[in-house]
Each structure stands twice: as structure tokens, then as C-alpha cells.
Amino acid sequence: MITSSPLQPGRPRGVPGFDRSFLALLGPSLLGLAFVALAGRPTDADQPASLNAFSQTYCLDCHNESDAAGGLNLGNSDFSQLTANDLDGRQHWEQILIRLQTRQMPPPDAERPEESEYQRVSTAIARRLDQLHRQQPRIPNVDTIRRLTRTEYANVIGDLLDIQIDATQWLPKDESSHGFDNITVGELSPALIHRYVSAAEAVSRLAVGRQGGTATGWTIRLPADLTQEYHLSPLPLGTRGGLNLKHAFPETGTYRVSVRLTRDRDEKVEGLYRTHELDILIDNKRRHRFQVEKPKGRNDFTQVDANLNTDLHVTAGMHDLGVTFVHQGDSLLEIKRKPFEASYNRHRHPRQQPAIFEVTVYGPLSPGDQQTTDGSQPAATAIAKQPSTHFSSTGSRRKIFTAIPKDDSIESQQAAAETNFRNLLFKAYRRPIDDADLAVPMRLFQEALKPTVTSSDATVTAAPAQSINGTPLWQQQFERAIERGLASILVNPNFFLKIESAASDDKPAPISNFELASRLSFFLWSSGPDQRLLELAEAGKLSDRQQLAAEAKRMLADPRSEALVNNFAAQWLYLRNVDAVKPDLRLFPDFDENLRRSMRQETEWLFRHVMQNNLPVTSLIDSEFTFLNQRLATHYEIPGVVGSHFRQVQLPADSPRGGLLRHASILAVTSYSTRTSPTIRGNWILENLLGTPPPPPPPNVPTIKENQPGTATTFREQLAQHRQNEACAGCHRLMDPIGFALDHYDAIGRWRAFNLDSTIDSQGTLPDGNEVDGVADLEHALLHNPQPFVRCLVEKLLTYGLGRGVDHRDAADVRKIVQQAASTGYRFEDLITGIVTSQPFGYRTKESLH
């Protein structure tokens, strides 16, 4: 069995007798909407009179007409008079329910009810509010017009045209709101529209693969601290280092691939004690092998990589480009001699073997610019008469040219174009297509076709048949005309906007089947509906809840559900922030790019595993396994993990690794460059696991210095002094105790027993007086009553899936989803199907979002 570091993380998993109530442990300010189970027979507390008596006993001393503490006056608030039409009153009591469920009312220094009475009254209020919601539902609206994010745009292009693009070269960064970047995407400036036009022109040319474009260069530079001694998946075994990436070749043609090697401070390429072999691969097949040798005679290292370039013929579209060295037997010598160190990776001296600095791709080359294997120029291709018609086949061209002209007549070309555009429009616009939709691309197609057309007495024929490189001129013109029509589709608002019909009533009404298909696909795939979804929508079958739930399960099993890992989980858990982590290399010299990437992948693998295997979502918090490669296992001091690929590793009971709170990715993004931050870590848990973020700090609050003078000698003491400021005390009393429970992990997620000369103290006293000690205590507290965590996850998924924030109007539906999932242990699929069949997901009203 693979074992971990002997250091203990605190109380081990599964300690018998650990039965303290989650509510009692985490206290009033940490639970947020800790929804209590609503099952069970009614009690006398269900009666409004009993609730009014509760208010008289515990609330009115502070919340009355003359002394409305916190702006809350219960003196004129009678629960017995609450009706379904009283929307303001329902909002009022939802807020009261939150305060009761989080034990924020009454305050600690006032008379407080027993725990059983808290639960009894909270249950009664929740049941009544749910009943009123069923009588008069109110849901916030989703904006009727929202543009695709950059990620969604690239994914839709990929599904529609079978090409992968980098949308960042055209579209601006999407701003985040409510924690996700698909919320505030409604504005369209003239400059942004111009970007969409540029993107449409470039993408249509790339997809059609029409020849004759201008050569363009792309350079990919590897991070300076990226270790290149290991095999890089998915490159062939027996190779080491380099890069493997997907690259979009704009058209079929010849491209020049050039490689530059890493140099030391003296501009020397080190490690050339022997000849090394460097492979260029396209789609994991070797297309060229270089011999890299030490310069002969004088040490002129400028010439070492001067000839590391080769011309390769590549078809249009997306291909895997790999550049890597052939593995040599003694390459592990350097790793054993010197472990991972960022500064060492940047400027090793002496280096045992060369490394790649950057790779450049340039093309497509004109015939005169191409090189043959002997370095000469190839002969020009002559223009031929009467060539045979040939439509080359790539993934994107198969998507576009579902019909090809029978001959070179205008009628045949127009008929083929109409068929092609109809097929593309249905999927591009994600709704039924009419003649008006077809008119625009057909008009542009016909205009582009005119230069080849000549008129006679009664007929219109194409230009005389000629060809270049074997392609008839009429076919080239046909493809160019298709390209222009395709560009008009991609620049149409029906493509790059998500458009829904506005509701005409204040009462929730179901959205159309096509709108529901789009909501579902953009939620689970960050892309448009596939053919099956569109056909079900056309048949009106998505209105069936069972059919909708079945489709959600099908889509979760599809590889495109990886979007939930890359987009939802990456934003929910702050994994995108891992790229910005910059630890002080003087304090953390072993942090490098390999470790950074491995940190993020561990968390992605855990979320992916829970999703793909339909595990309880609580497995994200308390897991007896994790996913590691050799680099991360070395960081964690876990032996027995060899190789760069990730694999599931079972952990012993006393391992400091496992769930999210033990992942280096989470621990690093919640730290400073030089030290940990209990405050940031506590805030991360409140916001992302409990859904109860504290308010933003007041202005002009002084920060805590690294070495603050005075009597405080530890950071814990410095924070205690900081909490003496009343403006800071309220929030820090919530965040700091939770954050201190993770203090055994340093700023890059390593387990530690000491911080400098001080023993780590991971104890924390929570607002209600209960204590936790270490990460295991905190995990047990989170999962003793998992509903707050599950409720938070449902709210995050609903926010991401709808593209809007949730509020009190969603509370009843969120409670319902959580309660339904409880019967199966909160499995991932049940949360997803509960969301997609919920009223907020499938309905809209005339009511505004705000």
C-alpha cells in the first residue's frame, strides 16, 4: 500500500464517538442557510399563534417599533397574517428564517430558546414558506439576451465545425459576478461587435480550409521553471520533456516548425555531452527527427538550434503538435542529483541534457518558400485544364459540405449551398429555421459567386474550367462563397447570443423546449445542444421531466461534461487562481511549474471522479483517496508513485491528504506568497463550502504586517490584536477559527508540525464556544450535518447553470432539491437532475431579475 508522511493531521478519520452536532459546533454565524429536514408530522409550532408567541418571548425586546435593531421591526409582523400574495412579507420571513437557522437570533447575551425549540420553529416557518411558494411561486428572471462567454464561443464553434479555436485572440475577457464568468455577459459595444466580425471571418476561413491565405506565425514558449526530465503524456513512451498542444492550422498546406533550445546565463546550450534526438510529431506520429549536437570547433552555440526547423504538410483543422526529446537511459541522474527547485530549473549549472525554450509554427507557406529535404525549393505547380472535381475531407469540411454540387452549374452550386446552410443554421441558432434565416447567407453566397459567372442569351454558366494545384477554379470560388455565407451565420446575433422570449405574465411560465435545450447544454457542456437535444426539443419532449432528467444523465456521461470540471469547478474552487500563485522562491525553492500544474490537476481529478462515478458530493470533503503523479507525490512525501500520469491513490487513515481542504491547490490560493492566511482560508470555506460569505471589510482598515512590533509574537496573537478593532472583530471571529484549523499546511500545501520555531496550533474556538482542532475536526463538523454544504453546492450550480445569482425567491426550490437528494446520499446526478427539473431552471416570469 502506498503510505503517506508519518506526520499526523490531527484527529484521524472515522473517530468513534465523534457525534457533536454540526449546528452546535459551527455556531450561529457559520451555517448560512442550514436547512433543517422538513419531514415529520406537524406539531403545535406549525400554528401561527405559536410562532407569534415565540416572537413575543425571544425577539420583541430588540426588534420593536421603538428599537428596531438592525432595521428589523417585528412589532407589526404577524406570521398568522402572512399570505401567498404578500411577497414583501414572504421575503421578510425568509430573512427571519435564515437568522433562526443560523442561530443569529436572539444574540448570545439575551434569553435564547433550547435547540429543540430552534429546530421546531425553523421547521414550521420553512414548511409554511414552502406552502406559500407553491401557491404563489416567484422566481428571479434570467436575462432574455446574453452573449456567449469566450469558452462557450470556442466550444460551440468546436461542436458546430469540428475545429478548436483560441477565442481569446478575438474576444475580451469575461468579467466575473457571483463567482462565475457567465453572469455579466449582456453588453454589446461597437468595438465588441467588430471583434465578432473578425472572429467570424477567421473561423470561417479556418473551417473551410480554403487555400491562398496569408502566412501567420505562432510561438509557444515554455515556462522557465518547467522541469523537462519526465515523459509528458500523451506523447509516446520513450520520450521526455517538451510540449504537446492542440494547434489550429488555418488551411491545408505546408507549415514550418522551428525549435529554440534553452540557454544558461552565458547563452550556452548545456547538456550537449552527447548527441540528442528531437522529434516533431503531428497527431502523435513522428514527422521529423533532428540530431542535436554540440557545436564543432569553436563554441558557437548560436548555431546549435539554427537548423532545427522543418516544413511539414498538414491538413486544415485542429491537430496535436508535439515536440519532445528521445529519452536516454541516464536522464534520471540529474533528478536524483538535484530535486525539484524552481531556481535550479531556470538556471541549472551544469545541465545534464538540453531543454526546449520555444516552438514556432509558421504558415501556410507559398510554394516558393517551401524547402525540400535537401534544402532546395520545390518546382511550381502548373495550371491544368479540365481537372477532376475533388472536395478534400477534413472534420470541419465534413460538417460544412454535407452537400456538394453535382457539377459546375450555378443551379447545382446554389442547391448544394442551400442544403449546407440549412443544416448549419439549425444547430448554430439552436432553434427552428425559416426562409428569412436562410436568406442572408444565401445572398452573400450568390454575391461571392458572381465573379465567375458570365451571361449569354438565355443561360448563366460558370467560368471556363481551370485549376490550381488540381482544384477547379469554380470549386475554389464555390468554397469562398460558402465561406462568406458561413461568416454571416457566425456574426449573426442568433449565434453568439443566447436569446429567450420574454414572459408576458408575472406568474412563472415554462420556457420553450428549444430554450430549455440551450439552458441544459450550456449548463452541462458550456456549448450548444447536440442533434439529439434539438430533435427532442423539436418534438416537444423536453417538457417531460423524466425525459429531461434522462437527457441530463446522458449528457453527464458524455466527454463534453468535462466543461463542468474546467469551467464550473475551476471557478467555484478558485482553481483558475492557481496560475497566479507566486510563492516566494527564497522560502519555497522547490515550487515549479510542474508542481503548479499538478496541484490543479489533483483537484480536477477528484471532482471529475465524483461526477463520472455519481458519488455523494460529500466525497469532495472527506475522501480516503486522492489523485497523484510523481511530482505531487514527492511534494506530499508519499512514496511509491512513479511517472507523470495521474492515478488514484488509496490513503491510510492518518494521512494528511484526501478531500478538498487537504489539497495543495486550495491551500496555495488561500495563502500569501510568504505565509498562510487563516483569514483567507476561513473566508474561502464560508463562501464556497457553506455559502455564507462575510461582508466586505470596512474601508481604511490597517493590514497585518509580517513582523508587527509589540507584545504579539505569533501570527495568531497578531490576529487577536486585530480583532480588538470593533470594525474587524465581527467578521474575523467567523473566519479565523476555521482558517486556523488548516494551519498545519504551509503556503504551498505541505504538511508541517512547526512554523519557524513555533509549534503549530490548529485549535479554534467557534462563536458558540465549541472548539475544533485540525482539519479532521473541521471535516467532521462539515459533514455531521451535510445539508449546509449540499445547499451551498446547489446554489453554486444553479447560479452557474442559469447565469444569474440566486436569492430569497429561489430558497424554496433549493430546499426541495436538497431534500430530494438526501434520500440517495446527495449523489452528484441527483443534484443535477433536481436542478434541471426545477422551476427556476425551466420557467421564467415577467418579473425583473433585481
From TrEMBL:
Boundaries of every Cytochrome C Planctomycete-type domain copy: 59-109
Residues in DUF1588 domain copies: 657-753
Residues of the DUF1592 domain: 511-638
Ranges in a coiled coil: none
Domain DUF1587: 146-208
Signal peptide range: none
UniProt feature, compositional bias: Polar residues: 368-379, 386-395
Name of this chain's protein: Planctomycete cytochrome C
Species assigned in the record: Stieleria bergensis
